[in-house]
């Protein structure tokens, strides 16, 4: 009972080192836990009235009694227009396009296009993310410059562009008739915003390689969420690879160089933020998986989630007065403006490359490409920003990526075996 207040009181003093501590801990207003609760209060000011309105319309049986101009909008937001599709094998993925007499050269070109697009989008995104959150802008010989501190504004920038791209894509291409109640996207949206915020905020306390490796280990909480939310079962190899990932991450985090200083150690605040990212992100994927039981395309999912993400973030920013402050920062530093815009472009384009790759080549090929991307991201960050990795830490990274590739191999073997199963013997669901 008395430990929690003591831990919370000690958190502001646990900075990554002398170099970062003064900039981050000037006041309680700059402390991540305080900002987290302020942001959450802003989201609650939108969520609570929305929840009360939904309950009001349901109690009134508005679907049968409602009339007027607002009826179609309220019906779409609260009730939806279609029942769930009960017989979907895997609603979380779009139907894979079977190659129809396409030449080998054409298929190779498509694969290269997908791989290059994904690598370029997300490697650039990772480098820019670290640049924006850990370096100063406007530094001169006499002026040390200033850091951009509002992670929520970056989340808003990413979501507004993703919303625009998904909206244009849905408008220009044929999509399934939408049937899910719109309010259900708000759950995935809220967890997605919080996971992105934790991801940006964590870079103030930990190195980018540590963050990438922690993200690679989110398989474990995803499995836990799958058992809690979706009541899924898992094969023995999934537990084995999850254990290997845990061992690899532990080796990396606990390894220490002889000349290691406090400024390079992963802090308690960084670990808490990473845990928050993984938990929120695990909930997002499982909730989206449940939403795909309605007939919808991945781009419709992207549009629906980002509608609420834009609403939540802009509402919270306006309530805090942070939107104008962030815009003033952009006006003062044109370099930051270019970085923030390019960050959003990479994020939006990367999502479209994800959908196209899975549609053309399936989830296994996509997973391999993204796993390689994580390895390249660690290497690139070490080269550009000078992060050091010890021998034990390098072995830990190798164990993690070996386990990830083992998961891909085992999953592809299981899928091939499940196709040969007689009717009535359904394979075990996997994450």
From TrEMBL:
<feature type="transmembrane region" description="Helical">
    <location>
        <begin position="338"/>
        <end position="356"/>
    </location>
</feature>
<keyword id="KW-0732">Signal</keyword>
<feature type="transmembrane region" description="Helical">
    <location>
        <begin position="153"/>
        <end position="172"/>
    </location>
</feature>
<feature type="transmembrane region" description="Helical">
    <location>
        <begin position="236"/>
        <end position="255"/>
    </location>
</feature>
<feature type="transmembrane region" description="Helical">
    <location>
        <begin position="363"/>
        <end position="386"/>
    </location>
</feature>
<dbReference type="InterPro" id="IPR013657">
    <property type="entry name" value="SCL35B1-4/HUT1"/>
</dbReference>
<comment type="similarity">
    <text>Belongs to the nucleotide-sugar transporter family. SLC35B subfamily.</text>
</comment>
<protein>
    <recommendedName>
        <fullName>Adenosine 3'-phospho 5'-phosphosulfate transporter 1</fullName>
    </recommendedName>
</protein>
<keyword id="KW-0812">Transmembrane</keyword>
<feature type="transmembrane region" description="Helical">
    <location>
        <begin position="392"/>
        <end position="410"/>
    </location>
</feature>
<keyword id="KW-0472">Membrane</keyword>
<feature type="signal peptide">
    <location>
        <begin position="1"/>
        <end position="17"/>
    </location>
</feature>
<dbReference type="GO" id="GO:0046964">
    <property type="term" value="F:3'-phosphoadenosine 5'-phosphosulfate transmembrane transporter activity"/>
</dbReference>
<dbReference type="InterPro" id="IPR037185">
    <property type="entry name" value="EmrE-like"/>
</dbReference>
<dbReference type="Pfam" id="PF08449">
    <property type="entry name" value="UAA"/>
</dbReference>
<feature type="transmembrane region" description="Helical">
    <location>
        <begin position="108"/>
        <end position="128"/>
    </location>
</feature>
<dbReference type="GO" id="GO:0000139">
    <property type="term" value="C:Golgi membrane"/>
</dbReference>
<keyword id="KW-1133">Transmembrane helix</keyword>
<feature type="transmembrane region" description="Helical">
    <location>
        <begin position="261"/>
        <end position="280"/>
    </location>
</feature>
<dbReference type="GO" id="GO:0005789">
    <property type="term" value="C:endoplasmic reticulum membrane"/>
</dbReference>
<feature type="transmembrane region" description="Helical">
    <location>
        <begin position="301"/>
        <end position="318"/>
    </location>
</feature>
<keyword id="KW-0813">Transport</keyword>
<feature type="transmembrane region" description="Helical">
    <location>
        <begin position="33"/>
        <end position="57"/>
    </location>
</feature>
């Amino acid at each position: 009972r008395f430990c929690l207040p003591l831990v919370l009181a000690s958190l502001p003093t646990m900075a990554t080192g002398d170099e970062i501590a003064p900039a981050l801990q000037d006041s309680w207003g700059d402390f991540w836990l305080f900002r987290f609760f302020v942001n959450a209060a802003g989201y609650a000011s939108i969520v609570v009235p929305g929840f009360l309105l939904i309950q009001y319309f349901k109690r009134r049986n508005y679907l049968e009694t409602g009339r007027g101009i607002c009826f179609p909008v309220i019906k779409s937001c609260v009730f939806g227009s279609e029942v769930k599709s009960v017989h979907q094998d895997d609603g979380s993925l779009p139907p894979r396009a079977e190659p129809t007499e396409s030449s080998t050269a054409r298929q190779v070109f498509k694969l290269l296009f997908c791989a290059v697009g994904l690598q370029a989008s997300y490697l650039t995104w990772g480098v820019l993310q670290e640049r924006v959150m850990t370096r100063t802008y406007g530094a001169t010989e006499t002026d040390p410059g200033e850091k951009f501190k509002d992670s929520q504004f970056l989340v808003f920038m990413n979501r507004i562009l993703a919303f625009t791209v998904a909206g244009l894509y849905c408008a220009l291409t044929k999509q399934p008739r939408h049937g899910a109640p719109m309010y259900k996207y708000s759950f995935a949206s809220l967890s997605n915003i919080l996971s992105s915020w934790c991801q940006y905020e964590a870079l103030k306390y930990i190195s980018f390689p540590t963050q990438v490796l922690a993200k690679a280990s989110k398989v474990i909480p995803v499995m836990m969420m799958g058992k809690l939310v979706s009541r899924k079962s898992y094969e023995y190899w999934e537990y084995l690879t999850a254990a290997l990932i845990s061992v690899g991450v532990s080796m990396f985090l606990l390894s220490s160089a002889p000349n290691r200083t406090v400024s390079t150690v992963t802090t308690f605040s960084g670990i808490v933020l990473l845990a928050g990212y993984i938990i929120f992100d695990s909930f997002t994927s499982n909730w989206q998986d449940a939403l795909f039981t309605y007939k919808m395309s991945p781009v419709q999912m992207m549009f629906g989630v980002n509608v609420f993400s834009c609403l939540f973030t802009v509402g919270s920013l306006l309530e805090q007065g942070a939107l104008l402050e962030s815009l003033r920062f952009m006006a003062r530093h044109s370099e930051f403006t270019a970085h923030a815009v390019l960050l959003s472009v990479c994020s939006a384009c990367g999502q479209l490359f994800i959908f196209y790759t899975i549609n053309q080549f399936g989830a296994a090929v996509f997973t391999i490409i993204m796993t390689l991307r994580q390895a390249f991201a660690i290497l690139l960050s070490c080269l550009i920003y000078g992060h050091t990795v010890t021998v034990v830490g390098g072995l830990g990274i190798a164990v993690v990526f070996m386990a990830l590739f083992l998961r891909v191999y085992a999953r592809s073997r299981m899928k091939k075996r499940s196709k040969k199963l007689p009717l009535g013997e359904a394979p075990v669901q996997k994450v």
